Structure formats: C-alpha cells, structure tokens
C-alpha cells in the first residue's frame, strides 16, 4: 500500500467497512477508529499530529493493568500477615501493644523490688529517693513516646483504610465498565445476527 503523505491525519472512520476498535491519543486523549489498513501501523492524530501505534498502546495499557493488580495483591498479603500477627518480633499491631504492656509491668516490678531493698547497692534512703525520681521521669518519657507511637499507628491505620476504600471503589467502577462493555458486545452480536437473517430472507425471496 502507498505511504500516507505527511501532515494528513486520519479521519475518525475513513469510510472503511472493517474496523479494529477505538484508539486514544496519549496527548489530547482524542479517540478515533482504526481502519484495517492502518491497524498495526502508525496513525497520526488529527488534532495534535502525534504518531500513535495502536498495538504498542494496547500492550502498554495491559502492562499497567498487570502492575496495578500485583500492587493490590501485595497489599492484601501484607494486611493478612498483620491481622494474623506475623512471625517473630515484627508481628502485628496488637502483638506490639501486648509486648509494650509486658515490658511496662516488668519494669514496674523491678522498681518495686529495688525500693524494698533500699535503692540499689550500698544505698541509703536519700540515694533511693533520687533514683526513684529519675526512674519516674524515664517512665513518663517512655509513656509519652509510646503514646506518640500509638497515635502514629492509628493514623497509619486510618490512611490504610482510606486506601482500601479507594481501591474498592476503583474495582467496583472497573467491574461496572466491564459489564457495560459485555452488554454492548451482546447487543452488537444480536444486531449482526438479525441483519444476516434479513439478508438470507431477501436472497430467498429474490430466488
């Protein structure tokens, strides 16, 4: 076939009977129909005159969809591991909170024992009081840090929940679009069948 002259863009349908579907320009997002002669060759957009390759465009879209699905799977696995509690020290949020509570209890018990003995080795009442004050301050600091960590974890949980909701909405939209496309295809098939039947009837009548 002869090469297309430069500067001339394809019309939306170009008067061809067969068609391989709609393609979108990456710059101006304009859709046009591809005729059978230009199906696997470069097409020029009428508006912005960019050369678009439909078969490459289709592959890129499929790769993007695959990447999205893989990300969703990874997030799902991560959330399941967190719910189960995970393995070892890494564990879920509930396990971390339990560990912190245990550590607090252990520290408090150790402090009580030291108070009973008199505040450490060779310690009188004055030394014991000073150490108690220091330990109280340390405990307050630790509690403050732990509260901040818990607040950060709660914020992270909220963000994750929002992301989950957004993903669910996107999935629902995709499902709806797929269902609409299926319905359109079914309608087209029915129309084609009706046309074929009409043509057969006309031929029989002519004969």
UniProtKB/TrEMBL annotation:
Where in the sequence does UniProt note compositional bias of the Basic and acidic residues kind? 58-68, 78-92
Point to the regions of Basic residues compositional bias: 93-104, 131-143, 183-207
Q: Compositional bias (Acidic residues) spans?
A: 146-180
Coiled-coil ranges (or none): none
* Entry superkingdom: Eukaryota
Q: Would you indicate the residue range of the signal peptide? A: none
Keywords, A to Z?
A: Metal-binding, Zinc, Zinc-finger
Q: Disordered: where is this region?
A: 52-207
Indicate yes or no for the key word Metal-binding: yes
Gene Ontology terms for molecular function: zinc ion binding
Domain (3CxxC-type): give its ranges: 18-95
Protein's name in the database: Zinc finger CCHC domain-containing protein 24
